Automatic annotation (TrEMBL):
It comes from Saonia flava. Keywords: Aminopeptidase, Hydrolase, Protease. This is Dipeptidyl aminopeptidase/acylaminoacyl peptidase. One of its GO terms (molecular function) is aminopeptidase activity. Residues 738-906 form the Peptidase S9 prolyl oligopeptidase catalytic domain. One of its GO terms (biological process) is proteolysis. Residues 158-172 have a biased composition (Basic and acidic residues). Residues 158-181 are annotated as: Disordered. The keyword Protease applies. InterPro entries: 6-blade_b-propeller_TolB-like, AB_hydrolase_fold, Peptidase_S9_cat, Serine_Prot_S9B/DPPIV.
Length: 938
């Protein structure tokens, strides 16, 4: 009887399993992503939005026990108030409704505007306010909020009027003088709302507004309404319910409105000139609590010679509020306005020895026009000290503006050589904030240099020396902390200086700097260089990294326990670890076959929210305290996943052709049968196996196959790690990928006649190379490939304006030199010179607005394949960058790629677009998705 029952249950289980759905493109819209997760400061509430299929969001608020407290359709971008009494969120219009209105050519200003939702967490009441343009919430207090309205239109009472009377009234209105309208120049109406009493005050025509961080103050700029509310700058003090106009001027422009943290000081820049002069006479003003009016600190006359007050430089008060920092700018470069268009010479003059390539200058034009040099005014005596200058344009303040010295740097001497080195070197100096005295301290340093939290040390990593160092600001002494030690990338396989593993941070009072090696965390004395290892990761190949739980804390507090993440390099398991800096002891809190996120802590409580994920498990929000013993799952974003045939992930190992032990990921269908033969797609970039436990929900990705989608439909996916030999990147890929495939073929479940390969950018290049060397692939998709390293070497990365030379000489392309130094390397690694050896059908995607890889590389590849009559198709999504970003284009790419692989690897019918293309006359009209067998054509 037991045997019969067991057999029955097994049959029932198999039957139920076999009924699982197979993912199709239409199912992608069922999947939800979690957006904007947050926890209230008291830790009692969690808020997040679920976005379904890239359409409307659904906001949810749950308590710490995961009970639903509140939800609202179309809600997103939620914020809790400081004292956790209210939740605020934006309510969007239905996306389908907006799309329908756009189809009906409804004007943009007639489309529905956002609303603001205000939910009271104490009594459960909800207030919704329409026509919202923006809203702001104080950071460190929470009795009020402020929001701007797109417009306020008074509705007329037409219930007692006839149509003729209404028409008559409208004609009268037209004859009246036009009233002041809300717009960008005049400002929008600002409503200040008391969250508790619900009382509201409206201030009209406001162009800017801010809350103080800690002080209960609001400042705003208005263009004015009447003799009572004049144009100018105002401060409202919520403590005494008092409104003060601190500056008055008609038709002025205001910039950089900024409070000190306490709210007792306010800075702003004013342009009072009503003419159209190119050089604007900006003035810097300061208001201090207790004063009736703001005081002018600086104008065009009193500014340092050759400089003017910048409208673009941020105004920042030092933490102790004894200093105000702002920007000075050089005079604007103006054009002769008397010239006609046909008299203006528009020519680009590129010079061989100018520091920045002309294309970089073009892209950075706005930044150059808005360049502001950091300057400080000491409020006690009014002394002005210019910190930034043409010699040292970039400034880092120390100790939140309190430090006696600022760190300045100048990259200009090394900008030209960065074209081919890829390094961003600078000279560094210290400038005395009180006197302006400047002392050069570091020369030609290739890594970023920063100031310690209290400003006692300048510190950084020197790539040339592979060394972390600390420079004592007071002593003028540099200590090389890690010289000769393994604190640089041990796995560096590029022809450049190895990068560092970064730092955890400083302890209080700048006593110690904590630096990462590959596995462990070390504590260094910045004065002596003596060190102490805090963790024991290297022996077990476990990596420890510090988690900063308080974003405002600038140091690692040795009076508190620290939280580390752990990652096992061998098993790929991750978890959390608690370390006590007092006892120098630690313990593993949780670890397992998952990937854990960085926790977000309630700032006034012990609760944290975090996610864990695996290939099978969606990263739902979890809540716990800092021991992670009791974890409560808060969200359930995609319960429908259990209805679908999914997949599993596992590590696989093999040996490369040149004898290296390698690791990769193998993704199998959930209903995998080792006795069956499966088609397989190889997808890779460089090294990906650390992502073994990454969840991959169905989505229309921009550049790669979706793992869950393909495994659900019966594909295997193999993602091999690649180790590179400098000078031979293509051969390195061949040495690693092909033996990985053959090792899987030996297991017996891979269909050797139906193996495809897919990759993008660097992956696309490697695929282009591989198909010139092997016929193991039946089909290949190569996105944004580089088939010709010689022509690509001389190209421009249009997204940044940078030359591509550094990439080939020193970074990802790994050739280690120029084409004239190593011509053979450039030829051997360029698929274009062996394109006649390709026997694999190719789908190539390369877009005409690609800012990373010049799209003529994809064209070179395709027209050469076309010249040789090789089966190939080229996809160019007009106006798209390195990847298609628009939803409709991503969806199209995924559909065509699936049809391409299904045809070649699963003998599915060929779609019309593969047989006949999509003629230019049909572009955007007929997509050619139809399968030929379905329409009676073969």
């Amino acid at each position: 009887m037991k045997y019969i029952i067991s057999t029955f249950l097994i049959s029932l289980s198999i039957s139920a399993f076999s009924q699982k759905k197979i993912l199709d493109h239409a199912d992608v819209d069922l999947w939800k992503t979690i957006k904007n997760r947050s926890i209230s400061n008291d830790g009692n509430f969690v808020m997040y939005s679920l976005e379904k299929g890239e359409k409307d969001s659904h906001l949810k608020i749950k308590n710490a026990k995961s009970n639903l407290v509140f939800e609202h359709e179309r809600g997103e971008k939620g914020k809790f108030t400081y004292h956790s009494d209210f939740a605020l969120f934006t309510i969007k219009a239905w996306k389908d409704s907006v799309s329908d209105m756009k189809r009906r050519k409804v004007k943009k200003d007639r489309l529905p505007k956002d609303s603001l939702g205000i939910y009271n967490l104490n009594d459960g009441s909800l207030v919704k306010i329409g026509n919202i343009k923006s809203y702001k919430v104080p950071e460190k207090w929470s009795s009020h909020i402020a929001y701007q309205l797109e417009e306020i239109s008074a509705k007329k009472d037409t219930t007692k009027n006839s149509d003729k009377e209404i028409e008559k009234e409208e004609k009268k209105d037209k004859k009246k003088k036009k009233s002041k309208k809300v717009d960008k120049d005049n400002g929008y109406h600002l409503v200040v709302r008391n969250l508790l009493s619900k009382k509201e005050d409206t201030i009209k025509f406001v162009t800017d507004y801010i809350f103080a961080k800690e002080g209960r103050q609001l400042s705003f700029v208005t263009t004015g309404t009447d003799s009572i509310m004049k144009a100018g700058v105002y401060v409202f003090d919520f403590e005494n319910d008092q409104l003060s106009q601190v500056y008055e001027a008609e038709k002025s422009k205001y910039y950089q409105l900024s409070f000190s943290e306490s709210g007792e000081r306010l800075g702003f820049v004013v342009d009072n000139d009503t003419t159209k002069a190119y050089v604007r006479p900006n003035e810097l003003f300061l208001w201090q609590k207790g004063a009736s009016l703001a005081e002018k600190l600086l104008d065009g006359v009193s500014s340092p010679k050759g400089y003017r007050v910048s409208p673009d430089g941020a105004i920042i008060f030092s933490k102790d509020e004894t200093k105000v920092y702002f920007g000075l700018a050089t005079p604007a470069i103006v054009q002769d306005t008397l010239l006609n268009d046909d008299e203006i010479v528009n020519v680009e003059v590129w010079t061989y020895d100018e520091p920045r390539l002309y294309t970089v200058q073009e892209l950075q034009l706005k930044r150059d026009q808005e360049k502001a040099y950091e300057t400080v005014i000491h409020l006690k005596d009014g002394k002005l000290v210019q910190l930034g200058s043409k010699e040292y344009p970039n400034v880092r303040l120390g100790n939140e503006g309190n430090a006696p010295y600022a760190l300045v740097n100048n990259p200009k001497p090394y900008q030209l050589e960065s074209q081919w080195t890829g390094m961003r070197s600078s000279d560094y100096a210290l400038v005395n904030v009180a006197t302006g005295e400047t002392k050069k301290v570091l020369t030609a340093l290739g890594g970023a240099v920063r100031l310690s939290p209290e400003g006692k040390y300048a510190y950084g990593y020197s790539p040339v020396d592979s060394t972390w160092f600390a420079y004592g600001v007071a002593s003028g002494k540099r200590i090389d902390l890690t010289k000769g030690k393994l604190f640089y990338n041990e796995l560096n396989d590029s022809p450049r200086h190895p990068s560092s593993y970064s730092v955890a941070g400083w302890t209080e009072k700048d006593k110690a700097l904590l630096i990462y090696d590959r596995y462990d965390i070390w504590k260094f004395d910045p004065d002596t260089g003596s060190s102490e290892k805090l963790t024991e990761g290297r022996a077990n190949k476990v990596t420890y990294r510090y988690v900063q739980l308080d974003d405002e804390k600038r140091f690692m507090d040795t009076n508190e326990k620290w939280l580390f993440t752990t990652f096992d390099e061998t098993s790929k398991h991750s978890g959390y670890y608690e370390y006590n800096p007092k006892t120098t002891k630690g313990k593993q809190l949780v670890s397992g076959p998952y990937s854990y996120s960085r926790p977000i802590k309630a700032q006034m409580g012990e609760h944290v929210i975090f996610t864990r994920q695996s290939f099978q498990e969606f990263p739902n929000i979890r809540i716990s305290n800092l021991n992670f013993k009791k974890q409560i799952v808060v969200s359930d974003a995609n319960p429908q996943q259990k209805e679908y045939n999914w997949g599993t992930s596992e590590l696989v190992k093999w040996t490369s052709l040149d004898g290296k032990e390698l690791t990769g990921m193998l993704i199998k269908p959930e209903n995998f049968d080792p006795n069956k033969k499966y088609p397989m797609i190889v997808n890779f970039y460089e090294k990906s196996s650390n992502g073994l436990f990454r969840h991959r929900a169905p989505s229309f990705g921009r550049s790669t196959i979706n793992y869950s989608f393909y495994t659900s439909r019966g594909y295997l996916i193999f993602n091999p790690d690649v180790h590179y030999r400098i000078g031979y990147p293509g051969e390195s890929a061949l040495n690693c990928v092909i033996p990985g495939i053959t090792s899987l073929l030996e297991k017996g479940f891979v269909d050797k006649d139906n193996i495809g390969v897919q990759g993008h950018s660097w992956g696309g290049y490697q695929i282009a190379y591989l198909v010139t060397k092997t016929d193991i692939f039946k089909a290949a998709e190569s996105g944004a490939p580089v088939p010709n390293m010689i022509s690509a070497y001389g190209g421009i990365r249009w997204g940044t304006g940078l030359s591509r030379q550094f990439q080939y000489e020193h970074t990802q392309s790994r050739l280690g030199g120029t084409p004239w130094e190593y011509p053979a390397r450039y030829i051997e690694n360029s698929p274009i010179f062996n394109i006649d050896k390709i026997n694999t059908p190719l789908l190539v995607m390369h877009n005409d607005a690609d800012g990373h890889v010049p799209w003529y590389q994809g064209i070179e590849f395709f027209v050469s394949l076309r010249r040789l009559g090789k089966p190939s198709w080229f996809l160019n999504y007009n106006g798209e960058p390195h990847w298609p970003l628009k939803f409709q284009n991503r969806k199209d790419f995924n559909l065509r790629m699936a049809q391409f692989f299904d045809h070649y690897l699963k003998a599915a019918p060929k779609p019309v677009w593969m047989k006949h293309g999509v003629p230019a006359i049909e572009k955007g009209i007929n997509q050619g998705y139809e399968l030929l067998d379905d329409i009676g054509e073969n």
